[in-house]
Task: structure prediction
Amino acid sequence: MTGAREIRRTLAEISAAGSTVEYLAVDITDPAATAAALAPYKERVTGLVHGAGVLADQLIANKKASEIERVFAPKLTGLRTVAAALDADRLRHVVLFSSVAGFFGNRGQSDYAMANEVLNAWASSFKKNHPAARVTSLNWGAWDSGMVSPEIKAVFRERGIVLIPVETGARLFTEQFAAGRAADVVTVLGPTTPLSEPERSAATGPVTVERELGALTGHPIVTDHVIGDAPVLPAVAALGWAIGAVERAGGTPVRQVRDFAVHKGIVVDGTQPDRLSLTMTPAGDTVQVAIRSTDDKGAVRPHYGAVAVPGTVPAAATVAGLPALDGGRDAGELYTDGTLFHGPALRGVRRILAEDAARLVLRAELAELRPGDGAFGGSHFAPGTADLLLQAGLVWVKLFEDSASLPLGVASVDLHHPLPDGEPFLIVVEPAGGGDASTSVLTVTACAPDGTVLVRFDGVRVVSAPQLAAKFAGGVSG
Ligand SMILES: NC(=O)c1ccc[n+]([C@@H]2O[C@H](COP(=O)([O-])OP(=O)(O)OC[C@H]3O[C@@H](n4cnc5c(N)ncnc54)[C@H](OP(=O)(O)O)[C@@H]3O)[C@@H](O)[C@H]2O)c1
Result:
């Protein structure tokens, strides 16, 4: 067997070079066998090189649990077992063979990628607990050897992947012990390119995803969004979910949304649906999004609608003649006088800088909220700061129409740049034509202090509801 011959040759070469060498074969996924094999050496071992690995490439849908376990075992159980069989405090060198498949991901290797990424995390953690040890997780590119079979080589050749020749790999390995590399806890060796590009096939028919509301109901974005007695899901959370879902399904950032409409808001008072569905229907260059719930009897209720335009990038714009950030008056009372109903986590409108019906300018600042680990936002949109644009619309209606109000929809959302997280920015509210006795239509623009437009909501429709003033004032306090 070639393997056995190679082992014999290597052992002979090491001996010839004047070193003492012993070779033990043991299944490192077997803790008892590994501990027994290493017991006689436990007091002497000062270095660990973990190179065991197994591949079982398969697309996720076709993976079997037993194959995943086979891939995980030598890396995860194996490393734990060997480390436990040695005296960790004696180890001066720990070198782990990880892979760019973990660093970048690779088609068919989700399990192998995860296992290798765990090695990276393990290396960082071990280094933290044993700062004196040299610890390195080597994220190898593909070698022209070992587990890279002739079939895999052919695939890599087709993808234009440059393989690492054995001599080069060996040199890179030894170079890693140089003093200058001592701080490399996780490093990539070989070409720093992914082994495969992510494949995305644009959906041609409707795609529906679902989300349980349970995770949201205790989140400040809901608990600090109380109208009267009941928390209400902010419309921006629905808008953010639409943006994020289209981005994740299609792989293209969403920088423009049209026709966002609130059909029926979600009141989180115990009667809310357990889950919402979000259906994305491709239509030319756009994706129509419908967020709905289904009741016990199977009746479908529309809640929100929007049209995302992935790939459209809004042209750069600026707003001229903005007031200074520190002028005007404090805006705190807006949250207690019946203008705004938002609780502490959403209180981001800070100052009223210019108070003209033709142009209201507010100073805003809010530590971003990311409910659902970011599921309700996208690459250029996060719901906490975005909510401040709608709040600004309500402030305009209160100041110039003397009424409490709620947003109904936004004709066009242009996402130029993400809104700053915990940093000040300005919000400009200007009336646009097309309102009626009870509805105002506004243009709301968030910009940087230098006037660079960050986000623009055109055609924000806000409905006046004087009876809401008492409810707002009775909302979340504190
Ligand atoms: N080759 C590459 O291009 C490449 C790229 C990135 C990372 N890596 C990593 O580098 C390491 C070495 O890869 P390679 O190409 O040399 O692979 P290989 O030729 O397939 O060698 C893998 C080694 O792991 C050993 N092993 C597997 N399961 C074991 C277990 N339960 N107990 C003890 N030993 C076990 C195998 O021993 P037996 O032969 O006795 O089963 C074999 O010696 C792997 O960790 C791999 O993930 C390789």
Summary: Residues 65-85 form the longest helix (21 residues). The chain has two domains: 2-189, 207-473. The CA atoms of residues 256 and 335 lie 30 Å apart.
